[in-house]
UniProtKB/TrEMBL annotation, chain A:
GO cellular component, one term: plasma membrane
Gene3D superfamilies from the UniProt entry: NADH-ubiquinone/plastoquinone oxidoreductase chain 6, subunit NuoJ (1.20.120.1200)
Domain of life according to the entry: Bacteria
Subcellular location, principal: membrane
Entry-linked InterPro entries: NADH_UbQ/plastoQ_OxRdtase_su6, Nuo/plastoQ_OxRdtase_6_NuoJ
Name of protein: NADH-quinone oxidoreductase subunit J
Transmembrane segments: 6-25, 32-51, 57-79, 91-113, 147-168
GO MF assignments: NADH dehydrogenase (ubiquinone) activity; oxidoreductase activity; quinone binding
Keywords linked to the UniProt accession: Cell membrane, Membrane, NAD, Oxidoreductase, Quinone, Transmembrane, Transmembrane helix
Subcellular location: Cell membrane
Pfam family of the protein (one): Oxidored_q3
Family to which the UniProt record says this protein belongs: Belongs to the complex I subunit 6 family.
């Protein structure tokens, strides 16, 4: 048990510290790297809670894909972030206020939250203990039965958003030469060159007229 | 494996349990590093044989100690950090590459029960770790503060992200047939002789997986991140000494890992090819299959020319992605139609 507790405090401390460094690092690339460490520690916390499937998804989706794109953009953009930060201090009061309100709301929520009397009657399927059923199977059994339409709708919304982003940023420019792979592969030697009899002293001028 | 070592102590204590974990990690990592050294030798020998050369043959009998001599040479050289480099990230990058290449081995089953951790989400774990591998390369490319290194890093990042998608779909096909994400379950589902191994029913996606694995490990013909003809050596151009050695070891450990994953997913892991050979320990078959996978990787390196970068991207997104997506639907349809889905656990 002490091992688990130690691991929890380690992950929690690293997550909070790295989260703080995300916003305090001067170099934006460092910020993204700290963000990755935060994601990673959060994944560790998920594992400790027995939610190994969520932990792996967090690593694959956020660390493996989203953060890579962040890193890409931050590395490629030539933005002077120091200049951005110049006036940042004047926003501290309002930012702090928003943070305080969020914190107060969260605290109220957690304090007031309790299971209703009739929850046990309303549950459609019995809830097995966490050790009895695998994460993946438990989530699949819920996502693909009770919440099938919501799940599919969420997927569709993401698909539409993706296609929308591509359509909005895609521009057709005139005069761009495109590669047609099948055309290139289907090209035969006789389409590409022509054998010409060149008489001495006359050059190739008359023969190449037809090409 | 951890439990087996722990029970050897005979006394219960959290400290001893930690010791057992460390011992079982060492039992995997030390043989792995030694086999990486021989894998480099094996690779060079195959490459030489295809080109009708002799390959390394001076250090030790048949040149067997060549890799160790190279390692020693790298070890005693000076680590040069470029003046404009971001020192911390520059030195972190090879360590991350090397560590990630090692920790993925935690879930590989060498025999029934012979693995550090029998994770329920073993396949996802391997996918997660291999998707992290891109960080070592992109960090080294950025921190080197050199154009060649940066271009190599960006290329590699785009390449690994692209081919991960089709690897993911291939895994989905196999998982549908197994009904579990646990690697031991994947092997058990293929028991009873080579005609039950998944490379027969899943032959098309096995090919997709093999080619994607080549791209994922930056092996020729997809070694564009280090394409020496255009980028000198890509992301590792500024590295010397042990930092370079860590990249090199990590690369080969990753190739062996991909061979091991291929053995587990498509060649029945520790199972013998025919049941009559079951008396030979499973670890022998597993290692033989890993060696076979590595041999295929080496042969591809020997006789396939390097792709152009746009061709590589086209292959990943326009050929493999639709094809693997089609096969997911195809295999799911077949399994539902002929009632081949594994029973609901």
């Amino acid at each position: 048990m002490t091992l688990t507790a130690g691991a929890f405090y380690l992950f929690a401390f690293v997550a909070v510290a790295a989260g703080f460094l995300v916003i305090s690092a001067r170099n934006p690339v460092h910020s993204v790297l700290w963000l990755i460490l935060t994601f990673f520690s959060a994944a560790g916390l998920f594992v400790l809670m027995g939610a190994e499937f969520l932990a792996m998804l967090l690593v694959i989706v956020y660390v493996g894909a989203v953060a890579v794109l962040f890193l890409f953009v931050v590395m490629m953009l030539d933005i002077n972030f120091a200049q951005f930060r110049k006036g940042a201090l004047q926003y501290i009061p309002i930012g702090g206020l928003v943070g305080l309100i969020l914190l107060a709301e969260l605290v109220t929520l957690v304090m007031a939250w309790q299971f209703g009397d009739k929850v046990a009657d309303n549950v459609t399927a019995p809830i097995p203990a966490a050790e009895q059923v695998e994460n993946v199977k438990a989530m699949g059994a819920i996502l693909y039965t009770d919440y099938l339409f919501i799940f599919q709708t969420a997927g569709l919304i993401l698909l539409v958003a993706m296609i929308g982003a591509i359509v909005l940023t895609h521009r057709q420019r005139a005069g761009v030469k495109r590669q047609n792979i099948s055309k290139q592969v289907a090209r035969k030697p006789k389409d590409a060159y022509e054998m010409v009899e060149v008489k001495s002293g006359e050059g190739i001028g008359s023969a190449s007229k037809k090409g | 494996m951890v439990e087996a070592i722990y029970s050897l102590f005979g006394v219960e204590s959290p400290l001893l349990y930690l010791t057992a974990i460390v011992l079982s990690i060492l039992a995997i990592v030390l043989p792995l590093l030694i086999s990486v050294a021989f894998a480099v030798y094996f690779d060079r020998k195959i490459w030489a044989a295809v080109q009708m050369r002799r390959g390394p043959n001076v250090v030790g009998p048949f040149g067997l100690l060549q890799s160790f001599a190279d390692g020693l040479k790298l070890f005693v050289k000076e680590t040069v950090v470029p003046a404009g480099a971001n020192k911390f990230i520059f030195l972190m990058a090879p360590m991350i590459t090397f560590t990630l290449a090692l920790i993925a081995w935690a879930v590989i089953p060498f025999d029934a029960g012979m693995m550090i951790s029998d994770l329920n989400v073993g396949i996802l774990y391997i996918l997660a770790i291999s998707s992290l591998g891109v960080y070592g390369i992109i960090m080294s490319g950025w921190a080197s503060n050199s154009r060649y290194a940066f271009l190599g890093g960006l290329r590699s990042a785009a390449q690994m992200v692209s081919y991960e998608v089709s690897i993911g779909f291939v895994l989905v096909c196999v998982l549908m047939a197994v009904g579990s994400l646990n690697l031991s379950d994947v092997v058990n589902a293929q028991s009873g002789g080579f005609w039950n191994w998944y490379f027969i029913p899943f032959f098309p996606i096995f090919i997709i997986f093999f080619i994607s694995a080549l791209a994922e490990t930056n092996r020729p013909p997809f070694d564009l991140p280090e394409a020496e003809a255009e980028l000198v050596a890509g992301y590792q151009v500024e590295y010397s000494s042990m930092a370079f050695a860590l990249f090199f070891l990590g690369e080969y450990a990753n190739i062996l890992l991909m061979s091991a994953v291929m053995a587990v997913l498509f060649f029945g892991g520790w199972e013998a090819p025919i049941p009559a050979l079951d008396f030979i320990p499973g670890i022998f078959w597993m290692l033989a299959k890993i060696a076979f996978g590595f041999w295929m990787f080496a042969m591809v390196k020997a006789f396939v020319p390097r792709y152009r970068y746009d061709q590589l991207m086209r292959l990943g997104w326009k050929v493999f992605l639709p094809l693997s997506l089609f096969f997911v639907v195809f295999y799911a349809g077949i399994m539902v139609a002929f009632d081949l889905l594994p029973s609901q656990g």
